[in-house]
């Protein structure tokens, strides 16, 4: 299995452990650290980063070449959308629906999906493509997994902060692709000097250097 697939599974297992933390269950009906997201809905959104992989693997891929990662984010209507935008309201509703049977059910279903994906991803060819119907466009499987790996890392932090537990540390092989992707997106948004200064020259760094 390639490094991105291994890294994704490592992050997915970390997400399962966080979902099963008793602090998540205790705060299930509380607001989260994200505007308009409850803890339950945020937990469901985190789990969806596993369920989405199974979903795209089950769908046919139409003819045509995949787009690259930066193009994927350039085309995304969710980038920069406000908290009340239709796309974000929909994301919250899906998260709430996924979590509607409670924390124990969500943790168990996510853990089982990760077990299935451990076998499925090992069996997929190196150049496997997946189709994102909401695009619509296609990505290589490894690029799609990189997007889900980033989502797991970011939303694990959101959920951990929401329930007041330490944010899980991922090993270098899992966090490095996330940092690389976020840095590339930040460079595209703000330019190279802004990102270099944010990382190495705090005295002249811009106040806001984010990927999105």
Task: Specify Rg, calculated over alpha carbons.
Answer: 17 Å
Task: Output the structural class.
Answer: mainly alpha
Please state the average pLDDT score: 94
Largest sheet: 2 strands, antiparallel
State which percent range the strand residues make up: under 5%
Form type: globular
Helix-strand pattern = HHHHHHEEHHH
Find the count of extended strands (DSSP E, 2+ residues): 2
Strand order of the largest sheet: 1-2
Features:
single chain; 212 residues; mainly alpha; 9 helices
Topology (SSEs and partners):
Layout: H1 3-19, H2 22-26, H3 39-57, H4 69-75, H5 86-98, H6 103-123, E1 129-132, E2 137-140, H7 141-163, H8 172-190, H9 192-200
Antiparallel strand pairs: 1-2
Walkthrough of the structure:
Helices cover 63% and strands 4% of the residues. It is globular. The longest helix is centred in the C-terminal third of the chain and has 23 residues, at 141-163. A hairpin with a 4-residue loop joins strand 1 (129-132) and strand 2 (137-140). It has a two-stranded antiparallel ribbon. It has 212 residues and is mainly α. The protein contains 9 helices and 2 strands, in the order H-H-H-H-H-H-E-E-H-H-H.
Compose a concise summary of this entry.
This protein is mainly alpha-helical and 212 residues long. It is built from nine helices and two strands.
């Amino acid at each position: 299995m390639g490094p991105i697939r291994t890294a994704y599974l490592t992050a997915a297992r970390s997400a399962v452990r966080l979902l099963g933390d008793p602090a998540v269950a205790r705060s299930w009906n509380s607001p989260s650290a994200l505007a308009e997201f409850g803890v339950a809905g945020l937990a469901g959104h985190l789990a969806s980063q596993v369920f989405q992989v199974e979903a795209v693997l089950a769908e046919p891929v139409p003819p045509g070449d995949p787009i690259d990662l930066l193009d994927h984010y350039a085309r995304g209507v969710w980038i920069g959308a406000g908290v009340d935008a239709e796309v974000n309201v929909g994301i919250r509703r899906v998260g709430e629906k996924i979590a509607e049977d409670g924390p124990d059910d969500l943790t168990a279903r996510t853990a089982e999906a990760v077990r299935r994906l451990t076998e499925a991803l090992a069996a997929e060819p190196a150049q496997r493509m997946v189709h994102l119907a909401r695009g619509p466009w296609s990505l290589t499987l490894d690029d799609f997994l990189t997007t889900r790996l980033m989502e797991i890392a970011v939303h694990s932090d959101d959920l951990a902060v929401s329930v007041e537990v330490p944010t899980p540390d991922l090993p270098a092989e899992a966090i490095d692709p996330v940092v690389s992707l976020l840095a590339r997106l930040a460079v595209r948004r703000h330019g190279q000097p802004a990102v270099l200064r944010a990382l190495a020259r705090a005295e002249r760094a811009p106040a806001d250097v984010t990927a999105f």
